[in-house]
Structure formats: C-alpha cells, structure tokens
Write a structure and sequence with these properties.
The protein is an alpha/beta fold. The protein is built from three helices and seven strands. It is elongated and about 70 Å long.
Length: about 140
C-alpha cells in the first residue's frame, strides 16, 4: 500500500512540475528566430489559394518573413494589433496578429511593412493567419 501511495505522490509531483513549466513558458517569440521562408503576403496567399494542403505542410508552424502593404488595421479582443494584407478587389488575404508589445503608432492603411511571424494555416473567409508577429522594418 505504501508503494502505491509513493508512486501516486511521485506522479502528482511530476504532473505539477510539467504544469508549472507549461504555464510559465516564454511564449516562443519569433524575434530571435531566423525566418524559414521570406516572401510577399500576396505570394503566400497565392500559394494557399492554389494548393492549401501543400502550403500547410510547407508553412504551418514555420517562422515566415512577409512584406506587404497594409489594407486593414484593427485590434483584437486582447488589445493586440491585427494587420490585414489583401490585394485590391480581394476579400481574403493574409491576417497577421502582432505581439502586444509591438509599437504600432506609425502604422496606417497603405503603409508598406515587413513582419516576421508564425504561420498557423488558412481560415475560410479570412485567409492565411500569421500569429506572434513582430515588425522588423
């Protein structure tokens, strides 16, 4: 009986340590990561429009450096800036949510920017999604 209790206690301690680690992880900012791919927002969207499955394999979870012209500028529910890159006349494009600590006071619709972020795939009615974005120029 004592062996079972000790085993359960050790298991609980391991689970608590893993939980504590998961809650206090750094968040894996892309700031210190090299980009796996560098392209324009229009080129990224075009690849997804042509072959979503192959694009998912190529880009999901990867750090991507994008260049594009801001077509929409908004804020999400947590107060992070969201940039939208769409071609004229298009409804879908690339949506990039910046990290909350990014200084965005100089950004406006029509600004040309370079960002780095992590691709999470394509959403219907929105387009390609980039998270953890940072401005690099």
């Amino acid at each position: 009986m004592k062996k079972i209790l000790w085993g359960l206690l050790i298991l609980l301690l391991i689970l608590a340590a893993v939980g504590f680690y998961m809650l206090n992880m750094s968040g894996d900012s892309v700031a210190k990561k090299d980009a796996d791919h560098s392209l324009t927002a229009a080129a990224l969207y075009a690849e997804y429009a042509n072959n979503e499955k192959a694009s998912n394999t190529k880009y999901i979870g990867k750090t991507i450096e994008l260049t594009g012209t801001i077509s929409e500028l908004s804020e999400d529910q947590q107060g992070a800036t969201v940039l939208m890159f769409t071609e004229p006349g298009e409804f879908e494009g690339v949506m990039c949510t910046l990290e909350k600590d990014q200084k965005t006071s100089g950004l406006k619709v029509g600004s040309q920017v370079k960002i780095k972020g992590q691709c999470t795939g394509k959403l219907d009615m929105t387009g390609v999604v980039i998270n953890k974005g940072i401005l690099i120029e």
